């Protein structure tokens, strides 16, 4: 198959999201003709950074003030109008990609392959089903193949500072119907690493008991320089905000170290963390499902274990 691949970049107009580079890694397994679409406003740093990837043949730039805070409603029409030149359109399987790509697929009237974890051939991929308990090999018969890429399954491509891919500016494209506009954005300020990109993640579940008790999770995370996560049960109980949820309906993580505290291990949660390099579980129930995927397990009362563990960590 003669492939022309378009990767939609996720960025904040200043830096490129790590999952974009992992999506490029997946694209390289499909074919060599790779272009990257950057939709933003005054985002020269992003353009230069992506251009340093030696696998990128060209960077297509849609610079518009409406893209200073890119909305999928306004960005999708750009990709659709460019789609005629490409056989594949890829995006990260992040909140950004899961919002953007389905809109593009709907406008093109094609199906989408979601959460791809392995590229088999240009039209065949592996993706998880049944909350990650099984893997399906799926072949697309669409004329244009759209897929979101699960970043935890791919290594990020490297940068070559001496390299600079050609830049093509596109203009005159429809930037949406004016029905959607950015209003505001609030971010929680934290010195901890971002959950999806952290090498160490400490997560708490319903067993932690309360919002106040979640301080034990925070203390261990701070000592290890890690990010904080939570099960859906902990989020639903109001212990932490939902942006910290790990699982099928939350963040998918694969850190070097994942510590699950007071988490029984519902399949939806394990779907979001079972690819972690080392998993440590702390739970009072020796039959808890979390121990089936854990490399190390501590059975006991977390309120006895955690203070001692925090004290032992330098």
Automatic annotation (TrEMBL):
Residues reported to bind FAD: 206, 231-232, 245-249, 262-269, 283
Biological processes per GO annotation: fatty acid beta-oxidation using acyl-CoA dehydrogenase
Cofactors named for this entry: FAD
Keyword annotations from UniProtKB, A to Z: Electron transport, FAD, Flavoprotein, Transport
Cofactor descriptive note: Binds 1 FAD per dimer.
Membrane spanning stretches: none
UniProt-recorded Gene Ontology molecular function terms: electron transfer activity; flavin adenine dinucleotide binding
Domain of life of the organism encoding this protein: Bacteria
Domain Electron transfer flavoprotein alpha/beta-subunit N-terminal positions: 5-186
Family assignment from sequence similarity: Belongs to the ETF alpha-subunit/FixB family.
Function according to Swiss-Prot or TrEMBL: The electron transfer flavoprotein serves as a specific electron acceptor for other dehydrogenases. It transfers the electrons to the main respiratory chain via ETF-ubiquinone oxidoreductase (ETF dehydrogenase).
Protein name: Electron transfer flavoprotein subunit alpha
